[in-house]
């Protein structure tokens, strides 16, 4: 009997874990922001930079007078301090996305998770408030680790898979689903990012939405 109960408890734990892992907007394990709070605004976020595309993205944002959030990988930020400084100088919000972005990040001990996050924070020369977990995975270990850092977690409500597919048609079909309050996930790693952003800008116009300033995102906490 005890064994059976233990089995059930284990299964429930496993299913909850799976839910937290598969649903980056879920706040099951910890507070997570995955949407803004203004009806007609959407917010741009870029993960996995800086890369050689980041300067082009910054030019595009400047030209279109849009402020975004960049979630940086510490190792890359360390190698490209000038582009990180430019993000900060141009008023963008810079968040942490771990030091190494390794696949086993969500499987480590909470103290190790916290260290990996804070190493990534230390290479960013401004106050960092936000953390985005690699792959959007928030399980109990990640939740405990992040709690030790005092950072807030921002995920997204619309992902384009632009980091894993270069099929522009598919990405654009996903972008067409945009709604007010959405936090959009793009990647600095997509070499076609500027034409995707141009197309997305048209979609936003057609839907009579605007790009919001991401500093208001935290207001919904
Ligand atoms: Zn990432």
From TrEMBL:
It comes from the Bacteria. Keywords: Hydrolase, Metal-binding, Plasmid. Residues 40-221 form the NodB homology domain. Gene3D superfamilies: Glycoside hydrolase/deacetylase. InterPro entries: Glyco_hydro/deAcase_b/a-brl (IPR011330), NODB_dom (IPR002509), Polysacc_deacetylase_ArnD (IPR050248). This is NodB homology domain-containing protein. It comes from Persicobacter psychrovividus.
């Amino acid at each position: 009997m005890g064994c059976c109960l233990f089995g059930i408890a284990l299964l429930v734990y496993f299913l909850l874990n799976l839910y937290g892992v598969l649903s980056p907007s879920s706040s099951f394990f910890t507070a997570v922001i995955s949407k803004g709070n203004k009806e007609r605004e959407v917010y741009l976020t870029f993960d996995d930079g800086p890369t050689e595309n980041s300067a082009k993205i910054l030019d595009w944002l400047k030209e279109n007078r849009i402020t975004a959030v960049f979630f940086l990988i510490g190792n890359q930020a360390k190698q490209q301090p000038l582009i990180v400084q430019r993000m900060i100088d141009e008023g963008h919000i810079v968040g942490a996305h771990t030091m190494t972005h390794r696949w086993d990040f969500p499987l480590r001990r909470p103290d190790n998770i916290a260290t990996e996050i804070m190493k990534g924070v230390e290479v960013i020369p401004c106050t960092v408030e936000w953390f985005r977990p690699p792959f959007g995975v928030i399980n109990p270990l990640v939740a405990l680790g992040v709690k030790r850092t005092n950072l807030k977690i921002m995920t997204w409500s619309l992902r384009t898979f632009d980091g894993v597919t270069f099929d522009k048609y598919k990405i654009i079909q996903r972008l067409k689903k945009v709604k007010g309050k959405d936090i959009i996930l793009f990647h600095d790693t997509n070499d076609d990012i500027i034409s995707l952003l141009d197309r997305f800008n048209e979609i936003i116009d057609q839907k009579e939405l605007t790009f919001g300033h991401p500093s208001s995102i935290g207001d919904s906490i």
